[in-house]
Amino acid sequence: MNVPGEEQYRTRGVTYCPHCDGPLYKGKRVAVIGGGNSGVEAAIDLAGIVEHVTLLEFAPAMKADAVLQEKVRSLDNVDIILNAQTLEVKGDGSKLTSMEYKDRVNDTVHQLDVAGIFVQIGLLPNTTWLDGAIERNQMGEILIDAKCETSVKGVFAAGDCTTVPYKQIIIASGEGAKASLSAFDYLIRTQPVG
Ligand SMILES: Cc1cc2nc3c(=O)[nH]c(=O)nc-3n(C[C@H](O)[C@H](O)[C@H](O)COP(=O)(O)OP(=O)(O)OC[C@H]3O[C@@H](n4cnc5c(N)ncnc54)[C@H](O)[C@@H]3O)c2cc1C
Description:
This protein is an alpha/beta fold. The protein has 4 helices and 8 strands. It has helices at 18-21, 37-47, 66-73, 169-190, and strands at residues 14-15, 29-33, 52-56, 78-81, 84-91, 96-103, 108-113, 116-119. Strands 1-8-2-3-4 form a 5-stranded parallel beta sheet, with helices on one face. Strands 5-6-7 form a 3-stranded antiparallel beta sheet, with no helix packed on it. A hairpin with a 4-residue loop joins strand 6 (96-103) and strand 7 (108-113). Helix 2 packs parallel to helix 3 (66-73). Flavin-adenine dinucleotide is lined by residues 16-17, 20, 126, 129, 159-160, 167-170, 172.
């Protein structure tokens, strides 16, 4: 978000992973920043755990798939605020207690009392160094098949930087094991005998 307080309260209320940290906010009020698919999925997920979710979207409309928007709007404990620009994260020195946002339509500033802020405004895989070498999708994720093969024979990829869905440690680890086995399989089939 690049706003005052974000660094100070990172891991003390500012978080980036609803699946990982959601249960820590059971029964509390939280905010989700971002109304794309990640933000709306996070809000739906968190609504089942926390007391209340406020979803803030910078633009005049959410970008998430219609089916997700319909689902999130059906939840009683989720409020959606559009045109909301996050201004500041505030706390008591040890943990986050609230946040400030500006209504971009009328320039009014509002405070939300929340225990957690889940930032869901996009992740960028660090793959630009592969430009022109290996095929990636429009988000920069390396395209892989079920065996972790890339577009280049003998080159395998695994983990968050690939198109594998659900960016979690156990998945990245499993994918790493799969890529290694695929590499081994590739080598025993291509290395000359003798
Ligand atoms: C804040 C946060 C909290 C999370 N909490 C959880 C959690 O509680 N549970 C969970 O399951 N998942 C969690 N995740 C997701 C989890 O961290 C990732 O799914 C997992 O780390 C992916 O592993 P990886 O090896 O694919 O990538 P990474 O762990 O990102 O490792 C990639 C490594 O490659 C290095 N690298 C990058 N570019 C280059 C280059 N050009 N040359 C050499 N090295 C390079 C990086 O420095 C890094 O060390 C969290 C993620 C974040 C951001």
